[in-house]
Write a structure and sequence with these properties.
This protein has three helices and eleven strands; from the N terminus they run βαββββαββαββββ. The protein is of the alpha+beta class. The protein folds into two domains: 69 residues, Roll (Thiol Ester Dehydrase, Chain A), CATH 3.10.129.10; 144 residues, Thiol Ester Dehydrase, Chain A, CATH 3.10.129.
C-alpha cells in the first residue's frame, strides 16, 4: 500500500458540481493498493479536501472526518468480454444519439459532460449502437492524462470506464455509482483514437449492473470494468 495518509481529489475532477467523479475517485483509491481491487463508494467524495486513508485487513478505507467515503478491498478483477466490437466510425455515429446532449443531470461532469472544453474533460459521449444493445463513444485521450511513457493514468482509465457503464443501464432512471472493478489488460495510449463501450448486465430491483470496455481502433480490448449502480428512490 502507498504510504500516503491522505487523498485529495482536485476540484477539476468532478462528477456532480460539488463532488468528485465516481470513476476517477475509485481509480485513485484503487491505486493505493498494489493488487486488483473492488472499490465501493459510500458517500459523495468531496473535492479539494484531504481525506484520511486508513489501512484495513484487506485494503483501505477513505474517510472525510467521520464519514466513510470509499472502501477498496482486494478482489479478483472482472473477467468480461464485450458483446461485440465497435469500430471508430460506428462509435462516431453513435455519439449523435447521446442523451446527455439534451438531458444531462451533471453537464460539467469530467468524463461525460458536454459543457467541458475539449482540452479539459474526457468528453466521452456514449450513444446507442444500432442493433447491438451497446452504447459507444470514440475517445482520444489528451496527452495531459498520460505519464512520461505516453500511457493514460490509472485514475483516468477508471474514469473513462465509469459513465458508459451507466448510460448502458439508466434507461430514464436516476442512479448513483456504488462499486466499480477494473481490469486493465494493457496500456491505453494517449493521443490515439479508441472506442469506449458500455452494456447492461441486468437489473435487480434498484440494482443496475453495467459493464464497459476500452478498445483500440482495431478492436483489441485494452481494459474492462463492471459497475453496480443504485437507482435513487423517487421523492
Amino acid at each position: 500500500m502507498a504510504t500516503s495518509t491522505t487523498l485529495t481529489v482536485p476540484a477539476r475532477f468532478n462528477g456532480p458540481p460539488d463532488s468528485a467523479h465516481g470513476g476517477y475517485c475509485a481509480g485513485s483509491v484503487a491505486g493505493l493498493l498494489d493488487q486488483p481491487a473492488i472499490v465501493e463508494l459510500r458517500a459523495p467524495p468531496p473535492l479539494g479536501t484531504p481525506m484520511e486513508v486508513v489501512e484495513t485487513a484487506d485494503g483501505v478505507e477513505v474517510r472525510d472526518g467521520e464519514v466513510l467515503v470509499a472502501r477498496a478491498r482486494a478482489h479478483a478483477p472482472p473477467d468480461l468480454c464485450p458483446p461485440g466490437t465497435v469500430r471508430p466510425p460506428a462509435a462516431r455515429d453513435a455519439v449523435a444519439g447521446y442523451v446527455g446532449f439534451t438531458d444531462h443531470a451533471f453537464p460539467t461532469c469530467f468524463a461525460c459532460g458536454p459543457e467541458r472544453p475539449d482540452d479539459d474533460g474526457l468528453r466521452i459521449f456514449p450513444g446507442p449502437v444500432a442493433g447491438t444493445g451497446m452504447v459507444a463513444s470514440p475517445w482520444t485521450p489528451d496527452p495531459s492524462f498520460a505519464g512520461a511513457d505516453g500511457a493514460v493514468g490509472e485514475a483516468f482509465v477508471w474514469a473513462a470506464l465509469d459513465c458508459p457503464s451507466g448510460f448502458a443501464v439508466f434507461d430514464g432512471r436516476v442512479a448513483v455509482l456504488a462499486s466499480l472493478r477494473v481490469q486493465q489488460r494493457t496500456a491505453v495510449p494517449a493521443n490515439e483514437e479508441h472506442v469506449v463501450l458500455g452494456w447492461s448486465r441486468g437489473v435487480d430491483g434498484r440494482k443496475l449492473y453495467g459493464a464497459s470496455a476500452i478498445q483500440d481502433g482495431g478492436g483489441r480490448v485494452l481494459a474492462v470494468a463492471d459497475a453496480l449502480w443504485i437507482q435513487v428512490r423517487s421523492p
